[in-house]
Amino acid sequence: MSDPASNTSLFGIHGMALELRSQRMGLLTSNIANAATPGYKARDIDFNAALSAEMNGASTSTALAQSTQYRVPVMPSLDGNTVDMSSEQVAFSENATAYSSTLAFLSDQINRVNRSIKGE
Amino acid sequence: MGNSTSGQMSLFDVAGRAMSAQLVRMNTAASNLANAGAVSGTEEGAYRPLKAVFATQLDKANGLATVNVTGVVQSTAAPLKQHDPSHPLADANGDVWISPVDENAEMVEMLDSSRQYQNMVEALSTAKQLMLDTVRMK
C-alpha cells in the first residue's frame, strides 16, 4: 500500500474524510448538548491525526479511538463541566464547512467517473 | 424518544433529548417564578423552589453523549417567616410563610436554558442540512 488514498477505493481521501467529519459532528453535538450537565468533560477528535492514521491503514474505529481527546478547558467551572460554548460553536461551524467542501469534492469525483463511463 | 433505550443513539436522539431536558429546566424556572412571593399559612405548606438534575448518558458504541433528566428536586431553602396578623392566611401567632424563590437566579436560569435550547436547534438544523446534502449528493 504505497498510496492508499488513491488505490484502495473510488472515493480516496475524501471518503475517509467525510466519515471522520461526520463522527466529529456527532461528538461536537454531544458537547453542545451537555453544556449544562455537571461533571461532563468535553471531547474532540484531532482530525489531522485521525486522517493520517487512517491513510496509514488503520480502520476508522481505531483511528477515531486514537485521536479522540478531552478538551483542555479555557476556564474550568465549579460543577466540573468543561464545555466552553464559544469554542464548541466555532469548532462545529468549522467542521460543518469542511464537511460541505468534502462533499463537493466527492460529488465532483462521482461526476467525473460518470462522465468517463458514458464516454462524454 | 425513538430508539433511546435500545439500539444505537443517533444525532437526532442526542439533540432531541437535550432539548427536552432544557425544556424541563425551563418549566421548573417558570414554576418557580410563578410561585415567587406565594404566601402560605404553615411552614410545611410553603412552596419550595424546584430544580432539574441533569446527567450525561453516553452511547459507548459510537461515542455520542446526550442528557437525561434524572429527577426534579425540591430546594431545602427555608421559607421566609413574616409577621403579618392582618393577612387572611396568618396562623395563631399572626405569622405567614413566603416561598423562598430567588427571582434573579430563576431569570438567569430561564435565559441560560433558552439559549442552550437555541444552540441545540441550530446545531441540529446544520447537521440535518448536511445529511440531506449527502443523501442528495449536491
Describe the fold and architecture:
The complex is a heterodimer of chains A (120) and B (138). With 120 residues, chain A is mainly α. Chain A has one domain (4-118). Chain A has helices at 4-7, 12-33, 47-55, 60-67, 85-118; strands at residues 43-45, 68-70. Chain A has a two-stranded antiparallel ribbon. In chain A, helix 2 packs antiparallel against helix 3, helix 2 runs antiparallel to helix 5 and helix 3 packs antiparallel against helix 4. Mean pLDDT of chain A is 90; it is low at 1-7. In chain B, 42% of the residues lie in helices and 21% in strands. Chain B has a 3-stranded antiparallel β-sheet, with no helix packed on it. Chain B has one domain. By secondary structure, chain B is of the alpha+beta class. The longest helix of chain B is centred in the C-terminal third of the chain and has 34 residues, at 103-136. The A-B interface holds A 18, 23, 25-30, 32-40, 43, 64, 68, 85, 89, 92-93, 96, 99-100, 103, 106-107, 110 and B 11, 14-15, 17-18, 21-22, 25, 54-56, 62-67, 112-113, 116, 119-120, 123-124, 126-127, 130, 133-134, 137-138.
Descriptors:
heterodimer, A: 120 residues, mainly alpha, two-stranded antiparallel sheet, 5 helices, 64% helix, 5% strand, elongated, B: 138 residues, alpha+beta, 3-stranded antiparallel β-sheet, 5 strands, 42% helix, 21% strand
Low-confidence sequence ranges of chain B: none
Q: Largest sheet of chain A at a glance?
A: 2 strands, antiparallel
String of helices and strands of chain A: HHEHHEH
Oligomer: heterodimer
Supply Rg of chain B: 21 Å
The greatest interface between two protein chains, and residues involved on each side, is:
A-B, 31 and 31 residues
SSE string of chain B, helix = H, strand = E? HEEEEEH
Estimated share of beta-strand residues of chain B: 15-25%
Secondary-structure class of chain A:
mainly alpha
Q: What can be said about the biggest beta sheet of chain B?
A: 3 strands, antiparallel
Strand arrangement in the largest pleated sheet of chain B: 1-5-4
Helix content of chain B: 40-55%
